[in-house]
Specification:
The chain is an alpha/beta fold. The chain contains ten helices and 14 strands. Strands 6-7-8-3-9-10 form a six-stranded mixed sheet, sandwiched between helices. α3 crosses α4 and α8 crosses α10. The protein is elongated and about 75 Å long.
Length: about 300
C-alpha cells in the first residue's frame, strides 16, 4: 500500500470546492494541491474552514460542489478506497482509554484489514516510529498529552499510508512536546510520505511545510513556499514603530498614504518592505519579515 509505483503527481487535488452549512459558507471555492511526497500546511484562524476541508477529504462531509481527488481517486464515489490508503490524525483525542497503547494499534490493524501475518510487524513499526515501544503495555489514560498525540499519529501510520492528514496535530501542547512532534512529522516527510497539516501555529507551518496555503473565510488567500510568501507580501525587512496610540495612528496613516503595507498590534505598527524605501522613516526597530506578518496582513487575525 506504500508503493510509489502508482502515486499520482498530486496526492490531493481540490478544485472550486464549496461547502455550506445552512446560510454559513464554510468553504468557498477552494483550490488546493498537495504534490506527492511533500508537506503542505493549511494555515488559518479558527473558522477559516480548515477542519471542514479535512473532513471533506475523508468524506465525513460531502462537498456541495467542486471536484476532489485523493491519491488519484475521485471523492465521494471512491472515498472508501482512498480512505484505506491514507492515515488520519484528528484534532480531538478519540483513543480508547480502556485499552493499552499496543491494543489500540492492534484494533486498527484489523480496521485497516492488514493481513494477519503482518499485523505484529505493523504494530512494532508504528510503536517505533512514535517512540512508544517502552509504553506499549501502558493504558492510554496513563499517558501524558504528548504521548497520547504520538499514539494518535502511530495509529494513523499503522497501515503505512501514502498520505497523512494531520488536523491541528499539536494544539494544546506545551512547546517542548510540540518540538518532539515536529521532529516526528519532519521524519515522515523526509521518508516521502505526503502530508496535509492544518494548523493555526505560524511557526509550525513555517518549520514543517514545503508550501503553505493560507485560508480566510473559507477561501485560499495565498499559497506558496513560506519564504516566497514572506518576500511577496511583507518584503525582506519590517520596521516596528512603538509609541502612544495617537502616534501609532499617525504613523500608520502616513505609511498607508505612501503606499506601504502595515500591520497593527496593540503596542506598535509594523511597516512592511522598508528595505526598498529611500526616504525618511520614523524611528523604530528593524527586523526580518516573517510568515506571521503575512498571516496578519492577509487574514486580519492576530496569532493566538
Amino acid at each position: 500500500m506504500n508503493s510509489l509505483q502508482h502515486m499520482p503527481e498530486l496526492a490531493i487535488s481540490m478544485r472550486a470546492v464549496v461547502k455550506r452549512f445552512g446560510d454559513i459558507v464554510a468553504v468557498d471555492g477552494l483550490d488546493l494541491d498537495v504534490p506527492a511526497g511533500t508537506c503542505v500546511g493549511l494555515l488559518g484562524p479558527n473558522g477559516a474552514g480548515k477542519s471542514t476541508t479535512m473532513k471533506m477529504l475523508t468524506a465525513q462531509v460531502i462537498a456541495d460542489s467542486g471536484e476532489i481527488e485523493v491519491l488519484g481517486y475521485r471523492l465521494p464515489g471512491d472515498s472508501k478506497i482512498a480512505r484505506a490508503e491514507m492515515g488520519v490524525v484528528p484534532q480531538l483525542d478519540n483513543l480508547d482509554t480502556t485499552l493499552t497503547v499496543e491494543q489500540n494499534l492492534r484494533v486498527f490493524t484489523h480496521l485497516y484489514r492488514i493481513a494477519r501475518a503482518e499485523r505484529a510487524d505493523a504494530v512494532e513499526r508504528a510503536l517505533e516510529v512514535a517512540n512508544l515501544t517502552d509504553r506499549r503495555k501502558a493504558k492510554v489514560d496513563e499517558l501524558s498529552g504528548g504521548m497520547r498525540r504520538r499514539l494518535l499519529i502511530a495509529r494513523g501510520l499503522v497501515h503505512r499510508p501514502r498520505l497523512l492528514l494531520l488536523d491541528e496535530p499539536t494544539v494544546g501542547l506545551d512547546p517542548q512536546v510540540r518540538q518532539e512532534l515536529w521532529a516526528l512529522i519532519d521524519a515522515l516527510r523526509s521518508e516521502g510520505t505526503s502530508i496535509l497539516m492544518s494548523t493555526h501555529y505560524i511557526e509550525e507551518a513555517q518549520r514543517l511545510a514545503d508550501t503553505v496555503t493560507i485560508m480566510s473565510h473559507g477561501r485560499a488567500v495565498a499559497k506558496g513556499p513560506p519564504a516566497d510568501l514572506v518576500s511577496q507580501h511583507a518584503g525582506d525587512e519590517v520596521l516596528e514603530v512603538y509609541g502612544p496610540p495617537a502616534r501609532l495612528v499617525e504613523v500608520e496613516a502616513e505609511a498607508v498614504a505612501a503606499g506601504m503595507r502595515t500591520r497593527r498590534t496593540g503596542t506598535s505598527v509594523a511597516l512592511m518592505g522598508v528595505e526598498s524605501r529611500n526616504g525618511d522613516l520614523p524611528d523604530g526597530v528593524r527586523r526580518a519579515a516573517n510568515l506571521e506578518d503575512v498571516f496578519v496582513l492577509l487574514t486580519g487575525e492576530e496569532v493566538s
